Structures
1.
Amino acid sequence: MTGELGRTLILAGLLLATVGSLAGFAVGRRPSPLGWAWTRRLAYGYGAAMAAANLVMVYALLAHDFSVSYVAHVGSRQVPTWVTVTSLWSSLEGSILFWGLVLGAYVAAASYLNRDSHPEYMPFAVGVWLACGAFFSFLLAGPAQPFLTLPQPPPDGPGPNPLLQNHVLMVIHPPFLYLGYVGMTIPFGLASAALIAGRLGHDFVRPLRTWLLLPWIFQTVAIVLGGWWAYEVLGWGGYWAWDPVENASLLPWLTATAALHSAILTERKGILKGWTTTLVMATFLLTILGTFMTRSGVFNSVHSFTQSAIGPTILVFLAAAMVFSVALLALRVDLLVPEGRIEDPRSRDAMFLLNNLLFVLLTFTVLIGTVFPLLVEALRGVQMSVGRPYFDRMAVPIGTALLFLMGVGPALPWGRATGQQARAALAAPLAGAAALALLGLALGVRHPWTLLTLAFGGYTAQVTLSELWLPVRQRMKAHGEGLGRALIETERRGRRRVGAYVVHAGAVLVIIAIAVSSTLGTSKEVVLRQGESTKLGAYTLTFVTTDTVNEPHRTSLVARVAVSRNGVELGTLSPRMNQYENQREAIGTPAVRTSLTEDLYLSIMNVDPERGTLGLLALVNPMVGWIWIATAVMALGGVVALLPPPRAREGRLRAAPPAPVADYGAVETSR
Amino acid sequence: MAALVAAAIALAVITVGGIGKNLVYYWGPAEIQAAGPRAVGATIRLGGLVVPDSVRYGEGASGLEFDVSDGKTRVHVKSRGVPPQMFREGIGVVVEGTITSAGSFESQRLMVSHNNEYRAPGDPYKADVKRLISTTRGLEGEAVGESR
């Protein structure tokens, strides 16, 4: 019964998306207000069908209705309720169903909010979005059916993968990732629509930028949450391993970040139109490639659920989307002519271009390292992987250069600068560079790349903070405003600008924290008897005892390790090994003691009851906590940049035709 | 335009060169034996079953030695670090490291296969080594040494 209802809703979604997509394209070709209204209604209908199908699945999971195939596959009576709800996205079919929910919500929201903006191409955009919706509904109706009815339902299910029920972050990370990943469909549709309609005037990137920035914020948070989850669960002591799955989440982020920057040049000067569109389309294609890599079982990881028939289907969709994108760009190449040009290599404009080249370079190196093993296996049947040193060697120099550029670009003026102006602007932040590098030296940093990162970080931090501070100070002087008033007014009057620099400030902090944590840590593996101690840096670790903790869904072996630092007792850390119901393998949970300067990280390697020994992996990871904090800063900056400017909002209240939400009013003023 | 092409070629050379130096090969004991001295120095992920009665523990965290087999060929492995909880005789393992010229495998990382297929009681050696390697989870991360 539940299964039938679910299947019906998915078929309804497939029908609504298909008809809506066709309607969108028809209305785009022959505009009609009535047709446009019905296209939007079909988009809302698709969103509603997907939401209802997801509700039915959550109901089936909570009711432990094992006649539904997906519930029999991932459900279990033993697991806590929060695990049951998150089981929705813990395996293949459910994750595609959840994808449908997020896509439906995005499509419905974007159709509603853009109902009055850019009528010359918006129906095409809805047509493209719903075509993607139709594809994912097709997956749910065919190769990845979650709602099959089992004739003989099992009395209980195995529960989701224990790695996925081991930490609360698994509740937050996947929704953020989907909101980022799936959201990239919206800018793809907008870019395609502008190309189809041939409307590539000055302002076509405005809605594009808004709808790119929104999923970009989610994606930024999701990537870091994934790293945080790995850090808190996998127990090897790090947060990033250049695993194909991690790379799959990073690649579209890189191109989206590049596109957010090139869109500024397109908006200001009418240049790089084709380039910005290409980056937006590449971002979408990379999300589909990432979905293929993580959902088809070509790579083994916690994300690759099963070897499934879904892989080839996604590959066909990827190929079709790629042909569609390339053909559109080729057909419209004559409309993509620049309306201006970059006048001076010593300008901020030129630095934007360099920023884009570096982001694309980084995308290529990560992409090649990720797909190379697949190509070799397909062509020569040889199995291999690309080791971490490749990624580190390529990404560290490019990342460091980007950090420096993030300071150089904003320091230079728009347009053109004389040699003297450029030198003066670039010399001032050297103070910040020297300060941070000297601080590092004083604290004992000797690693050359880390020192360079600190110097560039100091340079960029000074530029960023003075860009944030200068307008505040000017307001205080010119209008006699107090500090608080001036801060609020500056933010209100230049949200995009303020938001962008807050994102930059967060990014500087993230990069420094990554450099410091990956080069200045210490670690060791030891085997300890009860009562025995070991030293790691300033810490003394004493193995006290082991306990067994029983919970309904798991039995845990907990090691109690007393920690002291320079002779001061800091209490007990309790890394654990968890044996889950219905699962053969034991899974560890490391214990992490976080402070603002460093983390102490303990992970059980093994416990030998006969010999009474504990095999322990212990690490001191400096500054890791700052990665999480700085990511929150980046997200905050993104949200500020996304907020509509106050003038447009007031205008919206007064004026008869509501201003489109995507319309940001004036572009930021140049310095 | 010419500069762009030159830059693209330079990039291709750098990346392919960088990849070539950092490949990790997935091999079984038979392939290591077949490669002989050519395998020395390359980073290899070796998969197989831990031969019963071949495991010797050393002092503390170091000095674990055992043989890995695919049923026909054996490779002697010297492992650094503390073995994971599941490690025992007869279980499928994947070790990452290099072959020394003396013919023994110096492992930097040891992973136990969580794959049930590898524990079929009937014929434990009927193991597809490649599948073992590619389905063993947890090889993420870096080798752990005294300090990084």
2.
Amino acid sequence: MQPEDLSRLLAPKLGDRLRGVEPFVGTAGRVLFDRAGALDLFRAVHDELGFTHLSMVGGIDWVDHREVFYVVWSDAARQYAILSTDVPADDPRVESASPVWPSANWHERETWEMVDVTFDHHPDIRHLLMPDGYTFHPLLRSFKLHEPEELEVKTRHV
Amino acid sequence: MGRLTAAATELPVPKPSAVAAAVAPLAAIPVLQEPGVPFIEIEALRAKEFIPAAKEALSSMIAEQGQSKLIRPMFNWASRNSLFPLHWGLACCAIEFAAAFGARWDAERFGVVPRSSPRQCDLLIVNGTVTWKVAHKLITLYEQMPEPKWVIAMGNCATGGGPFRTAYSVVPGVDKLVPVDVYIAGCPPRPEALLDGILRLEQLIRERKE
């Protein structure tokens, strides 16, 4: 499967919410989409293109905006594909992929606590790697490494 | 005490005079005159005679010398020779921890036997990086251990956070959470260092007064 195939198959489903498909080394392509069409894209990619396995979800803080990406795998095509969307930094919000790929649950919990992207309609949004009550998002560029004592005061007895 | 009793029953029947001397009132039992060394010289006694005599001798010694002076060294002796650490590995120090109990270093010759339940332990060896996520579990395990209990911070991570000291997820030293008795440096410490730490802890317990 080539980027042109992805573009041809997804364009009727998404319309202008599909921003483009670019080549990406080792994968079938990198699909850039608008977050308004997230759930439609997930269903199309899962049900019709056959990418039935969600390998990982991640987030990147690009300071002026944040990027959320999904790496999916197709057993039939034996290929990866990357789905990527940009969300504004002042409203980091995207639809959860958990209804389509249940394995997105924990990945989205991690993405939320690390780069502070809210996943709408997530079934169980809780801290995954950090203790409950932890108020920081450590992989944001604005996060400063704390002096240990300062961090201790802020996270003890939570 | 049990061994003494068993041996006494197997002895041939002593002469009547010896039995009479042995079951005589406690003042008649000869006590070695070395100061501060409790010692009862008990000759051949039958079991039913030995137990009340020993009880009486012990109680009189306690009355003379004070309870803590006699009992505390015995408790300390028992405690330091049967340190049971919790079988709980956190990171790479746990590999050295495991090696210390293997055939080559064999920490069990010091009476140190890892147990799997905190209810059976009196020593918590924190061997590895403690994250904030696991911090409250560590505190729970520590609180589940019965008194008296001791803590060894093994390795640089448990001592002060190690290379991850400023990381967002790592406790900078386990003494922020539980009181630590012995710190062992190293990344990771060799099993000899762990054994040395255990022996130093035994020295601490030997000097314990309270």
